[in-house]
Amino acid sequence: MQPKAIIFDLDGVLTDTSEYHYQAWKKLADDEGIPFTREENDTHLRGVGRRESLAYIIRGRHYSEDQIQEMMDRKNKYYNEKVKQMTPKELVAGGRELLTEIRKAGIKTAIASVSKNCQMVLDLLQITDLFDGIADGNCVMNSKPAPDIFVYAAGLVHVHTIDCLGVEDANAGIEAIKTAGMQALGIGPKERFQRADKVLATMENVHLQDLLIQK
Ligand code: B16
Ligand code: MG
């Protein structure tokens, strides 16, 4: 079934900023002497908002709200140091061609990212103009797996959620998409996702036809 809108997550789908998020959290955890592994990042932090991610890392330890705020700012500073070097080369291979193909087919394109750095990353990748709507971490209160960011993005492009296809690299994001009533495409290893309607190992050099879910 052809959707009327395709709503993309950003980090880990259109670019590999998920690695930069991990490196920034790892640096913060090391500063604080808290053990934190790549496996934990993949299982518990992928696609999850800034505050919820920190809550996982410091779980069981006491910090004041001021300290929590300072740690979130510090992680964001580390993340920005990495991200500000980004160039359009870090867009997934074939990404510009895919987005252009989707729009040529008369399907709306939107972003649903809970990152507050989303707009800066889209600008550095030079793809802002390829989206009909951009929903980021400044638009909604509740982070994925809540459906809010995908519902908001569907509203921006005036398409009912039932007519949307959501694309995500995180299981929390797939949960958000399914709860919003959309078709869900997972990007990554099959074992990562519980409710995805379809899974692709990678977004590299894919075409519109590859994204569609056959019903
Ligand atoms: P920020 P997405 C998410 O973006 C990231 O996957 C996640 O790792 C990050 O913690 C979250 O954004 C908040 O990002 O700290 O930049 O506001 O996957 O929804 O595009
Ligand atoms: Mg993601």
Question: What does this protein look like?
Answer:
This protein has 215 residues and is an alpha/beta fold. The chain folds into 2 domains: 5-16 and 88-211, Rossmann fold, CATH 3.40.50.1000; 18-83, DNA polymerase, domain 1. 42% of the residues lie in helices and 12% in strands. It has helices at 17-32, 38-45, 50-57, 65-83, 95-104, 118-125, 148-156, 171-179, 208-211; strands spanning 5-8, 108-112, 133-135, 164-168, 183-187, 198-200. Strands 3-2-1-4-5-6 form a 6-stranded parallel beta sheet. Helix 1 (17-32) packs across helix 4 (65-83). The longest helix has 19 residues, at 65-83. The chain is globular and about 50 Å long. The structure holds 1,6-di-O-phosphono-beta-D-glucopyranose and magnesium ion. Magnesium ion binds at residues 9, 11-13, 18, 47, 169-170, 173.
Name the CATH superfamily classification of the largest domain.
Answer: HAD superfamily/HAD-like
Determine the structural class based on helices, strands and strand pairing.
Answer: alpha/beta
Name of the CATH architecture of the largest domain: 3-Layer(aba) Sandwich
Q: How many separate structural domains?
A: 2
Series of secondary-structure elements, N-terminal to C-terminal = EHHHHHEHEHEHEEH
Bound chemical compounds: 1,6-di-O-phosphono-beta-D-glucopyranose, magnesium ion
The largest beta-sheet arranges its strands as 3-2-1-4-5-6
CATH topology call of the largest domain: Rossmann fold
Helical percentage:
40-55%
Rg on CA atoms, Å:
17 Å
Question: Helical stretch count?
Answer: 9
Q: Write down the overall mean pLDDT.
A: 96
